[in-house]
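Chain and conformation:
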Amino acid sequence: MAVTSMANSSIRDFVKYNSMATFFAAGPFSCEYLVVAGGGGGGLAAAGGGGAGGYRTNAGTSGGGAISESSLIVARGVHPLIVGAGGAGSSSGSIKGTSGSDSVFFAIISDGGGGGGSGQNVAGANGGSGGGGASPTGAAGSGTVAQGYNGGLSTGVNAAGAGGGGAGAVGANCTTSQVAGNGGNGVASSITGSSVTRAGGGGGASDFADTGTAGTGGSGGGGNGSRRNAAAATAGTVNTGSGGGAGSNNTASAAGGSGVVIFTLPAQAIATFSAGVTQTSAIVGLTRVYTVTATSTTDETVTIS
C-alpha cells in the first residue's frame, strides 16, 4: 500500500511539473538586455575623439549616469535586431569623423556615437555620446540623455583636440596648448556573468610632434588619439561601441568600434535568428545569454518561441 501511494504521488508530481513547464515555455518571457550602438570615428588634424555609442540596459547602470531601465517582457513572435557599425575616421581636416550606427533590440534603440570634430573650430557631432571638439574652439558634441555623455570641448588652445564622450563620463576638455583631451570612460556590465566595461570615448589628437601629447581612449575600449609624426590613432574596440581615436595633421584617424546586443531569456525559451545574424549563447544560472556581435543588414530579426 505504501509503495502504491508513493507511486501515485510521483505520477501527480510528474504531471504537475510538466504542466508548469509547458505554461512557462509558452511565454511571455522576462528579458534582461544590454544594447550598445556603434562608436563614432575620430576627427583629423588637431581633432576630437569619437564618442561612444549609446548604452542602454535594464541589467545595471545605463549610459549618461542613468539608472537601470524598466523590466522588459517579450512576447512570442518576430522582433527587430540590429548591431550598429562603428563610424569611419575622418579622411579630411574639413569634415568630422563619421558617426556610428544605431543598435536595435525590440523597441529599444541606442543612438550611434558622434564623430569627432576636425580641422579648425569644428564641433564634435551629437550622438549616443558626443564627439570631441577640434582646436582651437570646437564645441563638444552632445550625448543622448540616459545613453551617454557629452564630448569635451577645445577652449581656445592651440593645436590639440578634446576627447570623445563615454557612456560613463564626459570627454576631457582640451585646456592646455598641444595637450589633447582623453576620452570619457565606459560603463561595466555583468549581464554575461562576468564584469565587462564597454563604450569608452576616443582620445583627441595633438598636432605637435616632440612636445605634443595625444589623448588616451576611455576605459571600455576607447581608441587612443595620435600626435604629429607618431603612430596613427587606434580604433575603438570591436563590439564595445567605443569611439575611435583622432588623427593629427599627418597621421590617420581611426574608426569607432562596432556595437553589441546582449539579452537573456529563460532557458526553456527558444530564440531563432535570421540568416544575417552572428551570435553565440551560453547558459548562466537559469537563463540563456545571447550575445549578438554582428548583423549583415538592417532587416535582421530574432524569433522568440
Q: What stands out?
A: The chain is about 10% helix and 20% strand. The CA atoms of residues 151 and 165 lie 4 Å apart. The two ends are 43 Å apart (CA to CA).
